[in-house]
Amino acid sequence: MRVSTLRSIIDNAIIHENQSQLLHRHLQSIVTSLPSHLHLQQDNEVAALETFSRQYICHVPEFLEALKEAALLSGIADHVLPFLKVAEEYFLSPPSLPNEHIGLMALMDESYLAHRLFEEVNDRYIGAVGVPLIPWDMTLANVVAHQLVGEALANQLDERVHLTVNKMMNAEHQYDSARFKKYVQQEQGNLTAIWQDWPCLSKASGIQWASS
């Protein structure tokens, strides 16, 4: 994992955003069109979205490190690490994006794909074990990010995630290994220490599902 390189990319994008305010202006332009099922708790809704966006982006390298540690601990590294590699490469060598998507705007797109891959890893782990690898629901954060990236581009990234998942399903046999079954029986609680200091992204930004 080239996590230090990802952090440098993010640091440079933050400097660019502080000067250009491109992401800030984008959030201003879409805040009134967010779907009604999303509720922003803060008085300044743009500030809530901006806080969320920066945290969503900055968490990618930390998620990569934590998921790698969790995968190595549980004995499913051969299954999980290819997902993390795709997320990392998308950050380091992104495909063509809309011209206005530079700086943090571009990293928001790349972070969406990374977090969706993390969500898929988590969902498949839950399917195999019955408990999550990442101990919180990532759905809301990714729904918010989907809106911020934009429907058309987010759908393209979702399709890329599905293709990646289908290519890597053959490694899921690791869930049947004796080492993994022993880990589930004896060491599952060790994951708590990996994730205990991590906030839920949407909750930390004051974003939640709207009451029906």
Low-confidence region ranges = none
Give the CA-CA distance, first to last residue: 42 Å
Count of discrete alpha- or pi-helical segments spanning 4 or more residues: 10
> How is the biggest beta sheet arranged?
2 strands, antiparallel
Which sequence of SSEs, written as H and E, runs from N to C?
HHEHHHHHHHHE
Strand order of the main beta sheet, please?
A: 1-2
Overall mean confidence score, pLDDT: 82
Residue share in helix = 55-70%
User: Which band does the percent of strand residues land in?
Assistant: under 5%
- What structural class do you assign from the helix and strand content? mainly alpha
By DSSP, the count of extended strands is 2
Radius of gyration: 17 Å
**Molecular shape:** globular
Architecture overview:
By secondary structure, the protein is an all-alpha fold. Helices cover 69% and strands 3% of the residues. The chain has ten helices and two strands. It has helices at residues 3-20, 22-30, 45-74, 77-92, 104-129, 139-149, 151-168, 178-186, 191-195, 201-204; strands at residues 38-40, 207-209. It has a two-stranded antiparallel sheet with strand order 1-2. Helix 6 crosses helix 7 (151-168). The longest helix is centred in the N-terminal third of the chain and has 30 residues, at 45-74.
